[in-house]
Write a structure and sequence with these properties.
Chain lengths: ~250, ~70
């Protein structure tokens, strides 16, 4: 256990010194501030871009629109940023060989993996919660508050998808070598998930639903029961990837 | 347009955060001589021209080992 805490602290320090914490916080806070503003200004922006003399009129933006904008930003750019920042999660250490000394000093391999996942998860959670709180504050200030059912659940789904991505990233980094091998494999995996979305009724099982349906949960457009199934599937997949990572990494020669 | 000027105070924190990222990246670029690839001029251009993405790409891919 002491190995876990020591390695966890080392990871956290590395995130701060490597500017990763700074990047995540800045970008996510910007998203949190920008989404309500964008939603609010959208009619103005469209009014000034007249297409061939046709002025577009869209309905007055609402509380829900602000959160839709937030989910759109986060599920696209947010996930790209998350992947980029945590891309070298394990691969970088493996390719530089920095883990060998620590492991030969008696640090258990399980502790390395678990501490790495925990540190990444903590950083993601803190920055995401911060962004969501700022988003909430700005939205309440700028818009009339409406009842948005399942708002917390939608936010939770996106968080869970981030946690799922991190687990997959860790797993692929332990399987493939190279400084960016894990990142590339994860991106490929995401591509496969997006392709699977074409199969009818797939949204029920794919974890991707967690990142795509968020705005739909609030308006009732997305099926809530399907989302619940994918939550459980995502949790199962996270645990599975962690187990796979632990087994692969235990046997891996460094 | 009146509405946009009303929202200006809310836009300022966003601009400040973007500037923090850009300045942090620029300071790092000018303090270090070696990069994983590219040269100083290239990175300065990337950081200044691509908002948000520029500094991220520099810190993740361009930053040499200390």
């Amino acid at each position: 256990m002491s190995g876990f805490t020591a390695f966890f602290k080392k990871e956290m320090i590395e995130y701060v010194r490597g500017y990763k914490a700074l990047i995540l916080f800045c970008i996510f806070v910007i998203f949190g501030m920008m989404s309500p503003l964008l939603a609010k200004m959208m009619p103005d922006i469209l009014a000034h871009t007249a297409v061939n003399g046709i002025t577009l009129t869209i309905p007055k933006p609402t509380f829900t629109d602000s959160f839709s904008q937030f989910f759109k930003n986060f599920s696209q750019m947010g996930m790209v940023v998350l992947l980029l920042v945590f891309g070298g999660l394990l691969s970088q250490d493996l390719s530089r060989g920095t883990l060998i000394i620590l492991l030969s000093k008696g640090l258990s391999r399980h502790a390395v993996i678990l501490a790495k996942y925990a540190a990444a998860l903590v950083l993601w959670t803190v920055s995401y919660v911060l962004a969501a709180l700022i988003q909430w504050g700005y939205t309440v200030y700028l818009f009339n508050r409406l009842s948005a059912p399942h708002l917390f659940f939608s936010l939770f789904c996106l968080w869970l998808f981030g946690a799922f991505l991190l687990a997959v990233l860790l797993m692929s980094s332990s399987i493939v070598g190279g400084a960016y091998g894990g990142l590339i494999l994860t991106a490929a995996g995401l591509g496969v998930l997006i392709l699977c979305q074409l199969i009818p009724n797939m949204d029920r099982f794919s974890p991707l639903t967690l990142a795509l349906g968020n705005a739909g949960f609030m308006t009732g457009a997305a099926n809530f029961d399907h989302a619940e199934t994918s939550v459980w599937i995502a949790i199962a997949l996270i645990l599975l990837s962690l187990v796979v990572t632990l087994t692969v990494f235990k046997k891996k020669s460094l | 347009m009146t509405q946009i000027s009303n929202l200006l105070p809310l836009l300022i924190p966003i601009i400040v955060l973007e500037l923090i990222l850009i300045i942090a990246a620029l300071i790092h670029i000018f303090r270090h001589k070696t990069y994983r690839f590219g040269n100083r001029l290239l990175w300065v251009i990337i950081v200044l021209c691509f908002q948000l993405i520029g500094p991220i790409v520099y810190f993740i891919f361009g930053r040499g080992d200390d």
